[in-house]
Amino acid sequence: MTKLVGKFAALMLISVLVTSVGATPAFADWDKTRYPAIQGTIPIADGQDFAELSNITLVDAMSTAEDAVPDSKAIYGKLSVINGFLVYKVVMMDDNRGHNKVLVDAGTGEQLYVSDVVSKDSYKNKRYSDKKYDKKYDKKMKDYYKDMTPEQIAEKKKQFKEMGDAWKSISLQDRAAMIIHFMQMKMQWDTMSDEAKELKKQEMKEQWKEFLPLSPEEKKQKLEDYVKSLKN
Q1: 119 lies in a domain?
Q2: Which residues have C-beta within 8 Å of that of residue 187, sequence separation ≥ 6?
Q3: What's the CATH code of the domain at 36?
């Protein structure tokens, strides 16, 4: 049971880490970005299962993306179908929390497209001027901070930033390993009952409380140790 909870804690961990690193805008627009008519090498028909059709790994795709955008880190990636071709869609983040996406051919590993960088400030301006913007995330964060003092809020935000920095600081290979594990755990999570999910959430929150106050170096070490445990 402890091992199982630990696995689901990793699912929650990666979700929060991605948010902490400032990637919420990138994921809000995950399937809304308009891409040019790219030409890949692996055509995919409507409804076709493409999970095992890639000729390259997530590590390969993230490496190509980082070569294409050298001032950013690849923080997430997954297989997608764009314009009828199989690609890896990789989310990139720079030190100023600007984000963009890179499309990598799943057949050859070549870069097919690099989107423009969207700055953190420009995204904030867009979301508050857009009447269709889903404000669930903002409400969730306001509820999270509502009983805290200004000093406590500042400390929490500092801890969240440290988590994002820890995520970006681990090796590309370790980031890819945790992303793949996240996807596997999410599939298992989706099959659980609502009652079982709620129990796991409470257990994970307790583990999260232990992780959050750690120093930046300890946070990074925890992530690296977890990746090592996946290989055992």
Answers
A1: no
A2: none
A3: 3.10.450.40
Q: Which domain holds residue 56?
A: 30-114
- Please check whether residue 129 lies inside any domain of the structure: no
Question: ∠ CA 86-174-56 to the nearest 5 degrees?
Answer: 25
Q: Is 7 found in the same domain as 44? A: no
Total residues belonging to the chain: 232
Write out pLDDT tens, residues 74-129: 999 999 999 999 999 999 988 888 889 999 999 999 999 999 988 866 655 555 45
In this structure, what DSSP letter does residue 170 have?
A: S
The pTM assigned to this predicted structure is 0.80
Would you call 86 helix, strand, or coil by DSSP? strand
Give, in order, the Cα–Cα distances in Å from 205 to each of 124, 145, 202.
Answer: 28, 15, 5
Average pLDDT value over all residues in the chain: 82
* pLDDT classification of 13: cutoffs 50, 70, 90: low
